[in-house]
Amino acid sequence: MNKLAPPLDPPEELIVGHTDLSPPYLHASTFSAGTTVYHHTTGSTHREPSSSFDRSSSKLQSDVSMPAEVSSTQRPPSSQELPVSNDVPANNKEERQVDDIFLPAAAGITTMAPPPLSDEWRGTSASLSRRSMGSSSSSRIPRHVTDETAFGSSRRGSRRVSDTRRLSQREDIPDSRFIYINNPDRTNENYTMAGNKVRTSKYTFISFLPRNLFEQFHRYAYIYFLILVILNQIPQLAVFGRFASLIPLILVLVITAIKDGFEDWGRHRSDSRENNRVALVLDHDGQYTYKKWKHIRVGEMVKVHANETVPCDMVLLGTSDPSGVAYVETLNLDGESNLKSRYARQETSNQHPEVGPLTGLIVCKAPDRNIYEFSAFMELPADSQDIQIPLGQNNIILRGCEVKNTSWVVGVVVYAGRETKAMLNSSGAQSKRSKLEHYMNRETGWLVVFLVVICFVGGLGTGLWVAANYDYLDIILYYKKMSSNGGNYLFSGSVGEGIFGFLSCVIRFQIMIPLSLYISMELVRLGQSYFMIRDTEMYDAASNSKFQCRALNINEDLGQIKYLFSDKTGTLTENKMEFHTASIDGVDYSNTKVVIEPATGKIEGSIAPEDSHFVEEILTKQAWKPKVGAKVDPDLVHLLTGRPSTAPRRDTLFDYMLVLVACNTIVPTRVKKTASGQLEMEAVNSMEDGSGFIEYQGESPDEQALVAAAAAYGFTLLERTSANIVVNVLGEVQRYEVLGIHEFDSVRKCMSVVVACPDGMIKLLVKGADSTVLNLIGPGDDENTAERRESAEQLQWQAEVREQTLKHLDKYAREGLRTLVIASRVLTQKEVEDWHFHYAKASTALHDRVGMLRNAAGLVENNLVLLGASGIEDRLQDGVPETIALLREAGIKVWVLTGDKQETAISIGFSCLLLTQDMQQIIINESTIESCRAAIADAKRKYGILPTQKKRKWFSIKHQNSVEASIPTLNDSHYENSANHEEEMERVHRSLALIIDGNSLVHALSKELEQDLFELATACRVVICCRVAPLQKAGIVSLVKRRAREMTLAVGDGANDVSMIQMADVGVGISGQEGRQAVMASDFALGQFRFLKRLLLLHGHWNYQRLAYMVLYNFYRNAVFVMMLFWFILYSAFSPSSALTDWNLIFFSLLYTAVPTIVVGILDKDLSHKTLLQYPQLYTVGQRGETYNQLLFWVTMIDTLWQSLVLFYVPYFVYRVSEVDLYSLGFLFCMAVVIVVNIHLAMDINRWTWIEHAAIWLSTLATFICQLVMDALTIADLLPNHWVSFHMCGELRFWFALLLTVILALLPRFCIKILKQRIWPSDIHIAREVEILGHIRHQSQPSLELHELPPSMANSSPPSAAVSV
Amino acid sequence: MARTHLNDNSPNLLQTPPKIKSNKPKYTKFSQQELAGCKPVMTPTYVMATLMLVGAIFIPIGSISLHAVGGVVEIVKRYEDVCLIIASTLQNITLSTIAQKVNYIQDPTTPKNCTITLTIPHYMKQPVYVYYELQNFYQNHRRYVKSRDDAQLKGKFVTSSSLASCKPEDFLDNYPIVPCGLIAWSFFNDSYVFTLNNVSLPINKTSIAWQSDIKVKFGAQPSNFPNNNINSTNSSTNSWIGGGALNPGVALNHNEDFLVWMRAAALPNFRKLWGRIEQNLYDGDVVTINILNVYNTYSFHGKKKIVLSTSSWIGGKNNFLGCAYLCIGCMCFLLAFSFFLMYRQWPRALGDTSYFSWHNSSQAKICLEHL
C-alpha cells in the first residue's frame, strides 16, 4: 500500500475538493490489510474538514469493527451507535465517486490487453489513466469533477441537515440494508448477503448417508425394526436367524436411499444448470462482461437483454426505452403470463447506466417474501445535495422474470441467491404424510402398549417360574441349566431370565406392529394410483395429458378433503379473455358468430356473402396482422367498413374503437416467422414495412382481448411508446399523440388517456366499471360544455343511449361477462392546459403522487359522452360451475385464492356459481392492522359470528346431520337453544361471502388476527382472496390446516401456486399452459379442474375406504395372530415358544394373508361410480373419518381378543391331554388363523370379482399346500415338523376342530355386523342397498339381486324411498 | 401458434406431420374398475338362511361326536406317588422332600419296581392303547424344543461345530453325543410289564411311532448315548442322568419309544403311546402293571400316569368337540330366530334414501328410539 502511495498524486482539480481523499483509491483492492489503514485515514478526513465530527480515531476503529457485529446478527445498529454507522456510507460515497471517475478511464486503456486485476496493476493503471486522462476521457471527467467539487463544498454546509434527515428516513425501514451501486465489495463488506448461488438439493456427497438415514428413521417403524434386529443378535434372544433378520431392514433402507439419491441428483443438476447460466455484469473496467450467475454479487450492475431471465432481484437503473420502461413476464413468480411494466427512475436512466457505472446508494429492507411489495430509496449525488428517490414495487425486477419487449435493461442487484423473492417463495417441499397414516401411528402406539403388556407378562412369568424352581433347575429335565461340559448354559438368574424372557417375547411377538402393513400400503397405493392414472374420464384431450400421480403416499387423503383452495387463472378459467359483445351507441352487437383469425387469414363461422367481403377487406388492409383472432359481429363490420358512410353515427363507432385501441397499456410486439417456422419476436420496435404478426402483451388480459377485438374490426394497434400510439385504422396508419395516461386505480375504477388526434382534436378516452363511469356521463354545469348544451336533440339521444346501454350491461352481466363502459370526451384547449398543468405536477411529485394524479384525472373525467359498453368473456374451463357445486354438496369448502384484481375475482366468483346475487359480501380491503382488525370485528358482529365452540363441534359431528361440521352459534341467551334461530344463523352464514385482498391478509394473517380471520372465514360460505402473493396463499392454507385440523387441498397451475400446493395436505397441479412448476410441486396433476370431481368423489372415496379398512384389518390380522401365540406361552412355562414353525411365523403376514388384503385394498369397491356421483354427500363419510377412527379400532381390538381366544382355546380343549405333538397343533393353529383371517376379510368385501375370489381362496389353499410341501421336504430345518400335516389331515378331529374354530371366532362379528346394518345403517350401507336392491323392488327382477346392474338399468330413475320389507 | 408451425414446410420438418401419441389410457373394464362382480348385501333372508345352515350342520356333528366319544373307555392311573410310597415302605426311608425323592430316583442302586392293579370297568374292544401320561412336563419349552439336531438324528455325520443347537447336551468329554440335545437326553424310560388276570399280557410295541418318522426322519445309525456309560460307572455322576439309555446295538429308527418321545408334545400335560393291547378286555378283568419307576419327575412335581384307552374316530375320551358343536348349533338357530323377531319388530326398508344422514332422517331416529 505504501509503495503505491506516491504515484497517487491527484490532479490539481481534484485536490481542490478532496485534499484528503487520496488513500481511498485503494479501497477497491484487497481489504485484508488495507482496511485499517483506510479507515484511519478516513478518520483523519473527518477530523480535519468538519469540527462537527469530532471523533477520535479509536472511535472510528469501532466503526470498522461494527459492521462485523451487524453482519453476525443481521440487525441494524443500536441507536447509540447509529450516527457512526450512518456516517460510513456517506464518507464512502465521496471516496467511491472519485474512484468511479477513474474507472472508465482505466477501462479505456485496459480494453487492449486486460491484465490480471492485482493491486499493483490497479494502482498503476489508475495513475496512468489519470495522467492520460486529459486526452482520452477529459470530456467526461471534468463534468464529474465539477459536480464533485460543488458537491463537496456545498456539502460542508448542508451536511448535518442532510444527515439527520437521512437518519430519520433510514430508521423508517427496519433491518435496512445499504447497497452501494456498482460497489459489491463495499456492499458486501458490512452485511452477509447471500451470493447468487442457489441450492435446492438436500444432500451433499458427504452428508448424504447420515442425513438420508436420519430422515428415513423418522419412520418410527424403522426404529422399531432396527431395535428388533439388534435384539436378535443377542444369543439368549435369537429367535430368528441373525442375519436373516437384518435383510428386510437393509433392503428397505437401501432402496429408499437410492430413490432419494436419484431425486437429489436431479436437483443438483438443475441447480448447477441454474448457477452456471451467464449474465452481463459490469466489471471493474466499466464494461459489461459475462459472468456466471453464481458469482453475481449484491451491488453489481447487471444488464439483461430481451428474452433473458433476470438472475437476481434488481432495482432498475435504465432500460432501452428512453422513458425507462421495461416489460417483464412474471410467469415464474405469480403465474401471470401477461407482461408487466417496470420503470427505471429517470434520474438514473438519464445517466446512461448501459455505458458505464453509476454511483449511489440504495437503502432497502431485509429480504422478504412479498413479491408485491418493495420499498426502498435511492440516494444519488446531485448538484446541491444528495437527492433521495423513493423506489417501489414498480422499480424492481425479480429473479425468474423474463425481460420482454425491451431490448435491454440495466439494474443493480439488491437481493441475490436464496434471498431473492423467488427463492424465498419456494418453500422447500415438505414430505407429506397422510392423515390416515398419522392416525395409524396413534393406534400403532396402542399396539406397542399391548405388545409391552404381553411381553411383560411373558417376562414376569419366566422370571417367577425360574425363581420358583431355582434349586432344581438343573434337574428339571426340560430345562437343565448346566451344560454337559460344565458351566451354566444361557442362564442368568431369575431376574436376568425375566428380562431376557421379556425381550425374546418382543422378538417373538414383533409382528404385533404390522411392518408388512407399510409395505402393503405402498402396494395398495400403487394399485390405486394405477386406477387413477388409467381413468379414461380423467384424460384431458386438449392438453393430451392424463392424470398424474406424483406422490404415492397420500392417496387416501383425497377422500377426506374438507377445504379446497383453488387458484383462479388457468385453474378455474382458461386464462383466455374473449371479446364477446359490444354495445355501441345503444345498439347491441352481440351477434358475434364470426371468428376472424388474421394470423391465418381464416374466417370461421357462418357469414353472409355480402358481409364476407367487408371482413376480407379488413384482412387485406392489415400489413401487420394480430396473432390472436377475435369474434366479430358482421353487422358491425359492415357498418365500419361500408364505404359510403351509411351509418348515421359512424363517428361514435370510430370513437368506440379508438377507446378500445388506445385506452390501455397494451404493448404490441412484432413477431415474424423465422426460417424454421417458429414465431420469433422482433427485437426492434421500429415501424418498418413488411408482413408479420402482432402479439399484444399487457398486464390485463381484458385489455388484450379488447385490443384484439378492435384489430379484428380493423383497428389495429401497431405501436405504442410513451408518447405515441400508432393505429392502423382500416388500412390507414394514424398516429395519435399521448398527452397523458390515468392508469386504472381501484378508487376511480376507470382508466383514461388523453390523446391528440391526427386532426388536432384532443380527446379523453375512458373505459371503466359501470358504477363509476356512468356517473361521469352527461353534461355537467361546467360552462365549457356550452356548445354541447345547445343541442337538446343531442341530450335526448344521450339519454336513450344510456338507457339502452344499461339494459345491455345488465344482460351481459347476467351472461357472466365482464363489462366495461366506454366513453369519451373532446377536450377544449383550456381544459387541456389546465389539466396538463396539474398532470405534469402530479407525475413528478414525490409525495402522494397517486392522489395528485387522481385529482388531475378528476379534472377531465367528467361530462363524458357515453359511447357504449363491452362484454368480455373470461372463459371458465369446462364443467367448473358444476364441479364446484358438486364439491360443495360433498361438504367441501371451496376457497378461491387468486393474484387477480378484486373485481376480476368477484366476477369469476359469480360466473362459476361460487357467488350468487343473494349473498352478503364481506369485503375487507384494509392496509393497516388496526383497520383490518376493526373490519373483521365489524363483520363478525354484524353477522353474529362467534368463536367456534368445541362442544358444539363435537355435538354436530356426533349427529352427523350437518355437512358443516362447525356452525358457530350466537351467544345470545334468548336464542341459545332455539333451533329456529340456529337455522336462521345457518342460513345467514350460508349466504356470506368473504372477499379479502392481499394487503389486508398481510395483517389478517398475523398472529394476533389470524384466529379472528379464521373464525370469520370458516363461517362464510365462500371465501375469495384476491391479490395474494404466493406465500400468502400458503399462509391461508396453513392457517386452515392448523386451526381447523381438517384436510386441505390446493389446486393451481402456475408457479405462484407452488407454495400453496406444497403447504396443503394434498397439492393438485393443473397441467395447463403456465409452465410446469405447479405440476412438479404437486402430488397429483390433472388436465382440467373438473376432474377434481372424479378424483375426490370417486377415487378419493374409494382410496380412503379401501386403505382405512386395510389398516384396521392389518392391525387386527397381526394382533389376532400374536394374541393366539401369546395364549400359548401361558402353557409353555412362559418361554417364548411357538407351536407354529418359524417359517409359518414368517410367512403368515408375508405370504398366507398378504395377497387378499392387498387385492381388497386395491380393488374393493363399496359403491359404484354412479351412486357416488349421484349422492355427493357420501363423500362426507371420509371427512368424518367413519371408516377409520378410534372407536372402530377398539371394537376391532375387542373382536381380535375374542377371535384369538377362540383360535387358541378351541384347539387347546380339543387336544387337551392327548398325544398331539407341538407341530401338529401348530398346523391346526396355522390353518385356523389363516382361514379365520381370510374369511373375516371375505365377510367385509363389498364387491366380489373373480380377482377377489382368486385372492382369498387361492391364498387359503396356498397356505395349506405350503404346509404339505414343507412337511414333505426333508431339509434339516423342516424335519421337526415332518409329515405332521398329512398326519393331521387324516384325522376327522382336526377338521371338526378347524370348522368349530372358524365359525365360533367369526360368529359375534357376523351378528354385530348385521345388527349394525339394521339399526344404525351408515350412509354407505344405505347407498349400497339403493344401488343393489333399490331398483329391483320396482322392476321385480330378483335374479339380478346380487349382481352389478348393467349400465342401462343403472341409469334409470333414482329409487323412490320407503319400500318396506 | 402450433398451426402456423405445422403449415410451414420448413426443411427441418418431416414430410408427414408428426404423429402426436395420445396419452389417453386404454379402456378396459379392469382399469375403469368396472369388472363384473357379485355385491353381496345382507338381506334378512340371507342372514337367517346362513345362521340356520350353520345350525343345521353343527347339531348333527355335535350329536354324532358325543355319541362316538361316549363309546370310548379310558382308565387312568397315576403312579409316581404310589410307587414312591411303596418304595419308602419297602426300604424304610423317608421320601418327603423333593431332594429325597430326587436322590432316590437318581440312585441306580435303589430298587424302583412297583406294581399297580387296575380293574376294567367296561368292555374294551381291542386295540386298547397304552399311554403314559406326563403332567407338568413342558416339552414345549423353547429351551427344550430347540435342543435337538435333526440332521444328526437323520444319520448324517455332524461336525462338532454344528451341534450348537443341541446345547446344553452336545458334547461329553469332547465327544459329540449321538443323539444329542435335551430331548434325547431326557428320554422317558419307565417300563411296564402287563399281566391280565395273572396271565402275561403281550403288548405290541411296533408301529407306535409314525411311519414317516421311522422311514424318513430318523436314520438307522447306532447311538453312543452318554447315559449308557454313566449307568455303568459309579454313582458320583448320577446327577447326569436325565432319562433312559439307548441300546447302542439297536438302530435309532427302530427304537420306536425313542421316536415317540422325540415328537415333542404341544402342551405340558400330554400322553405318549407306549404300546397296544391287541385283545379285548372285559368288564371286571384285572390288569396288573409292574412298573419300573426310574424316570425323574419329582424335581418339577411332574405326575406320571398310565392310561389304557380305546379309541374312536374322533379321538379319545374328550367331550369338548361334541358339546361345542351342539351348543353353537343351537345358538345359531336361536340367533336366526331373534333376528327374525327383530326384522318383524323394527322393519327398515332396504335402500330407503330417507335414512341418509343428510336427510336428517326422522325414521332413523324412530328406529333408534325403539331400542
From TrEMBL, chain A:
<feature type="transmembrane region" description="Helical">
    <location>
        <begin position="1115"/>
        <end position="1134"/>
    </location>
</feature>
<feature type="transmembrane region" description="Helical">
    <location>
        <begin position="1146"/>
        <end position="1163"/>
    </location>
</feature>
<dbReference type="InterPro" id="IPR008250">
    <property type="entry name" value="ATPase_P-typ_transduc_dom_A_sf"/>
</dbReference>
<feature type="compositionally biased region" description="Low complexity">
    <location>
        <begin position="50"/>
        <end position="62"/>
    </location>
</feature>
<feature type="transmembrane region" description="Helical">
    <location>
        <begin position="1294"/>
        <end position="1312"/>
    </location>
</feature>
<dbReference type="InterPro" id="IPR006539">
    <property type="entry name" value="P-type_ATPase_IV"/>
</dbReference>
<dbReference type="InterPro" id="IPR036412">
    <property type="entry name" value="HAD-like_sf"/>
</dbReference>
<keyword id="KW-0812">Transmembrane</keyword>
<dbReference type="InterPro" id="IPR032630">
    <property type="entry name" value="P_typ_ATPase_c"/>
</dbReference>
<feature type="transmembrane region" description="Helical">
    <location>
        <begin position="1222"/>
        <end position="1242"/>
    </location>
</feature>
<protein>
    <recommendedName>
        <fullName>Phospholipid-transporting ATPase</fullName>
        <ecNumber>7.6.2.1</ecNumber>
    </recommendedName>
</protein>
<keyword id="KW-1133">Transmembrane helix</keyword>
<feature type="transmembrane region" description="Helical">
    <location>
        <begin position="240"/>
        <end position="258"/>
    </location>
</feature>
<keyword id="KW-0479">Metal-binding</keyword>
<dbReference type="Pfam" id="PF13246">
    <property type="entry name" value="Cation_ATPase"/>
</dbReference>
<dbReference type="InterPro" id="IPR044492">
    <property type="entry name" value="P_typ_ATPase_HD_dom"/>
</dbReference>
<feature type="transmembrane region" description="Helical">
    <location>
        <begin position="445"/>
        <end position="468"/>
    </location>
</feature>
<feature type="region of interest" description="Disordered">
    <location>
        <begin position="113"/>
        <end position="168"/>
    </location>
</feature>
<dbReference type="InterPro" id="IPR023214">
    <property type="entry name" value="HAD_sf"/>
</dbReference>
<feature type="domain" description="P-type ATPase N-terminal">
    <location>
        <begin position="179"/>
        <end position="245"/>
    </location>
</feature>
<feature type="compositionally biased region" description="Polar residues">
    <location>
        <begin position="70"/>
        <end position="83"/>
    </location>
</feature>
<dbReference type="Pfam" id="PF16209">
    <property type="entry name" value="PhoLip_ATPase_N"/>
</dbReference>
Automatic annotation (TrEMBL), chain B:
<keyword id="KW-1133">Transmembrane helix</keyword>
<feature type="region of interest" description="Disordered">
    <location>
        <begin position="1"/>
        <end position="21"/>
    </location>
</feature>
<keyword id="KW-0812">Transmembrane</keyword>
<dbReference type="Pfam" id="PF03381">
    <property type="entry name" value="CDC50"/>
</dbReference>
<protein>
    <recommendedName>
        <fullName>ALA-interacting subunit</fullName>
    </recommendedName>
</protein>
<feature type="transmembrane region" description="Helical">
    <location>
        <begin position="46"/>
        <end position="69"/>
    </location>
</feature>
<dbReference type="InterPro" id="IPR005045">
    <property type="entry name" value="CDC50/LEM3_fam"/>
</dbReference>
<feature type="transmembrane region" description="Helical">
    <location>
        <begin position="320"/>
        <end position="343"/>
    </location>
</feature>
<keyword id="KW-0472">Membrane</keyword>
<comment type="similarity">
    <text>Belongs to the CDC50/LEM3 family.</text>
</comment>
